[in-house]
Structures are given as structure tokens and as C-alpha cells.
């Protein structure tokens, strides 16, 4: 049932290391399974989305976020005739390179790397996700990494600086970073994962924000997207209140965004009429919201950035998290004895790889062991 512009595993551009095909699974199904069984995937359960894991058992983590992205992505892919298995593989792997403590940890590690190695280019979590699946996972005797297909790796590398892209192209001339140099697009499945990621985190950050008590539904009425569907929910269910009203509002928001993507993307596909995967790559971005929905989504992002991500309680937590990362990096640079035990390579990049792979709670445990201080209760 795949459309001509969908990625077909029978015509994959292959793996970096040749392997015989699996007898019962397509290449993209095999990629998905390798990701699910990887160490980095399991670590996502204790990596921050917005709230640190110890702050509440029901807040999203990188793992639950990735599962939600996969669910949304597969639903949209099925209707558009895209490859569901590839979408699922990309969605489950897209955050494998995230540091502990979410974006706070990433920013701190980027600063540490730039200070320690000004020529190294800093830290990018999408590039780190690719490093995880290409190099850092150690599961197979014949090669490093997971040896995923080109199409899955292409989707994992969602963003990449031109500097890093050129470095990747030097080692893999027709590889996954080529499009950042040529200014072409990734597969439609990769484009779909990008927008499913946005839909998922906007919705679940609203849920977690209200659950935390840092924002409330009255504040959210400032956001046109939320207010519209809250009014609809109350009009249909006049006695609805509390968490049921929140859940129903978010459910309607999610559905509306999914149907909007289907409408906008179907129209774009009709106009561009790509007849192959490569034609779709050479077109403008084809998976998108309609313009009104894109405006509403941006308004919700601005609200969350101002009222949740920059809330004084969140900022206080992220400041402490950044200090943990900085202290760990400095401790490992000062004493490379840990590397002698095979824990990391004795270089700034090796230290960054090791820290980026930590869960929140392991980073806190290591910080206390190395510094004697506890920054979180």
C-alpha cells in the first residue's frame, strides 16, 4: 500500500556494513528492533523531558515522549501511504543522543566542549543521536553501532550545522549529511517525524505543566489553540471539569493537528506530484501544517517557553542541572583515571560521549561521588 514517494525497504540505500537480509522482517523493522533493544533506548526512561524524573512518576521522560511521537507518526503515515516501520524507527531513535537533564544538560555540555576544544564544534544532540547508532552502541562483533539503514540514519539526523555536515560528508560523501550541504530535504518519513515530534511535545508539555501546578487552564485560555478546543469540550460536555476537561481538550488538539497535517500534506503532494523518493527529496518540504495551524502551534510554543520552560522553579532546577554537567566534565578532565577503567576515551569528545549517555539519576550519583555535594533533594 506504499505510495511511489514512500521509502520501500526493498530499495533501501543499505547499511554501512553489508548484512544478509532477515528472513521474516524488512530492513526498517529490523532497524526498529535494534533501536528498542539498544542500551541508549533503555536509558531514555530516566532522561528528562521538561521535569526531572524524580520530581514525579507521571511526568514524561524522553522514552515516553519517543513512544508518543512514534504513535502519532505511524497514524499519519498509514493514511498518507508512507512507510510506518521507518517512521517508527526514526521516532524511537530521534532522541537517543540527548543528555541528562534535557536541554539544560545539552547547553551545559555544549559550553564545556567549546571551552575544552574550540575547534571541535561543540555538542549537537541530533548529531549525538547519529553517533550513538553509528559508533557508541557496542552490541555486535562485526561493527560498532547498530548498523542501521541509510533512511533511518537520515531521519535521526534531524538538524546539523553546516560545519558538522561537511565533516560527515568528508567521511561519507553520499551519506546522511549530504542534504545539509546540497540543501535538499530528507525523506517524507523523516519530515513526518519532525512534525509528529512537535505535535507530541506541545501537547504533553501542556499536560505536564498543568499537572506540576506551574501553569493552569485559565492561563492556557490565552492560547487560541487550547482555548478553542476547551470551549468545544465544555459545549459538548457542560459538566466536564478538572483533569477530564484537560485531557479532552488535549485530545481534541491532537486530533485537529493530525488532520491538519493530513490536509496540508495531501495538498502539497498533489501539487508537487513526486513520483519517487528522490523527487520528494528534491521538492520543497512537503509534510507540514496549514498556515493557520502553524500560526496556532507557534503561539502555543511561545506560551510554553514563557510560562513553563522559563518558570522560576524550572529555571532553578535547570541551573542546578547545568552545574552537575559542568562539574562532571571538569572532574573527568582533571583526572582521567576513570578512562583507564574503560569508561570513556581520554579526550573532551570522549568525556562528552560518556556524560551524554548518562541518565539523570546516574549523573546525580556520579556528581555526588566525585564532588561530595548533593544539588538535588
Automatic annotation (TrEMBL):
Region spans: Disordered: 8-31
Source species: Piscinibacter gummiphilus
Coiled-coil parts of chain: none
Record key words, sorted: Hydrolase
Protein's recorded name: Deoxyguanosinetriphosphate triphosphohydrolase-like protein
Keyword Hydrolase appears in the UniProt entry: yes
Signal peptide coordinates: none
Domain of life: Bacteria
Protein family: Belongs to the dGTPase family. Type 2 subfamily.
Hydrolase among keywords: yes
Ranges for domain HD: 62-202
A Pfam family recorded for this sequence: HD
